[in-house]
Write a sequence for this structure.
C-alpha cells in the first residue's frame, strides 16, 4: 500500500510539467507587454473593418411575434419570414435588433436598411439605434438570407 501511495504522490506532481506552466505565464506576460507597447507607441489598429461605400440598399420593416418569428416587409408586401427554410438567420438578426431597440426605447415601426457594399459585403443598418451589423463570418447561407433581399 505504501508503494502505491508514493507512486500516486509522484504522479500528481508530474501531471503538468513545470516548464509548461512557466511557458504559459511567459506567453501571457509577453502578450500583455506587446499590447501595452502598441497602446503606448500609438500603433495603428490592423484588422479593423473599413466600411465600404453602399452600392445598393433596401428599406424594410421588421416585425416579430411571441414565437420569435420575424417578418420583413417592403410596404405591404411580405418579403421574407424567418420560419421559412433557410431564413432562420433573419430571426437571429431580428432578435438582436429588437433587443437593441428595447434597450434604447425605440419602437419596432422604424425600418431597417439591408445594404450591399462596394466590396460585396452585406450589412443590416438600423438607423433608429445607429446599430450596424456587418454580415461577415456568419456563413454563406446566413448572409444569403439578407443578400438576396437587395438584389
Amino acid at each position: 500500500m505504501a508503494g502505491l501511495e508514493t507512486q500516486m504522490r509522484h504522479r500528481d506532481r508530474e501531471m503538468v510539467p513545470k516548464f509548461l506552466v512557466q511557458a504559459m505565464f511567459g506567453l501571457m506576460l509577453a502578450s500583455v507587454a506587446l499590447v501595452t507597447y502598441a497602446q503606448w507607441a500609438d500603433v495603428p489598429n490592423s484588422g479593423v473593418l473599413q466600411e465600404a461605400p453602399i452600392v445598393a440598399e433596401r428599406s424594410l420593416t421588421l416585425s416579430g411575434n411571441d414565437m420569435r418569428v420575424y417578418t420583413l416587409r417592403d410596404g405591404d408586401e411580405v418579403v421574407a419570414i424567418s420560419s421559412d427554410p433557410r431564413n432562420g438567420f433573419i430571426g437571429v438578426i431580428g432578435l438582436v435588433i429588437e433587443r437593441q431597440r428595447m434597450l434604447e426605447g425605440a419602437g419596432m415601426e422604424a425600418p431597417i436598411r439591408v445594404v450591399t457594399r462596394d466590396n460585396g459585403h452585406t450589412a443590416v443598418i438600423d438607423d433608429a439605434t445607429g446599430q450596424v451589423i456587418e454580415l461577415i463570418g456568419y456563413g454563406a447561407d446566413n448572409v444569403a438570407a439578407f443578400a438576396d433581399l437587395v438584389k
Remarks:
- The chain has four helices and six strands.
- The helical segments are 2-13, 18-40, 88-104, 140-150.
